[in-house]
Specification:
With 136 residues, this protein is mostly helical. Helix content is 71%, strand content 0%.
């Protein structure tokens, strides 16, 4: 296992984690809570979102221990104050959903990129897997 493999494999995780957290803050800001914006957390700069254990140590250790087969991570949560929403319960539900929705969108975009630009067979395999998993 070389360093290049680790970096290439962990880069998508860093991108997904960053977009996930920004989505929470962006939606909260649009719904009336400026907390994340005021704290400088509405940025695609991954350094702002890095959690030492969840973004660096754990993904690298999982990559090494599982030979790259099972890797995940997490970032520092974006601060949200539900009292700034007109409807705190609804605002929190929508803000909380924004992160996972962003991950799904990134997965679809990644699949399209793999299918169109890299190898159509990879995209078809992933598409079959997605269809099997998402089938009602």
């Amino acid at each position: 296992m070389d360093i290049q493999s680790i970096v290439v494999s962990l880069l998508p995780i860093l991108i997904a984690i960053t977009f996930h957290e920004v989505a929470h803050g962006f939606v909260a800001n649009k719904l009336g809570d400026p907390t994340a914006r005021l704290m400088g957390r509405l940025t695609l700069n991954p350094i702002v979102h890095i959690d030492l254990v969840g973004t660096i140590i754990m993904p690298i250790m999982l990559f090494i221990l599982t030979d790259g087969r099972f890797v995940f991570g997490y970032a520092k949560p974006v601060p949200i104050n539900p009292m700034n929403f007109k409807n705190p319960k609804k605002g929190m539900a929508i803000s909380a959903s924004a992160g996972p929705a962003t991950n799904i969108i990134l997965a679809i975009i990644s699949q399209l990129v793999l299918t169109i630009f890299i190898n159509p067979a990879i995209g078809l395999q992933l598409g079959s897997f997605s269809a099997a998993v998402l089938r009602p």
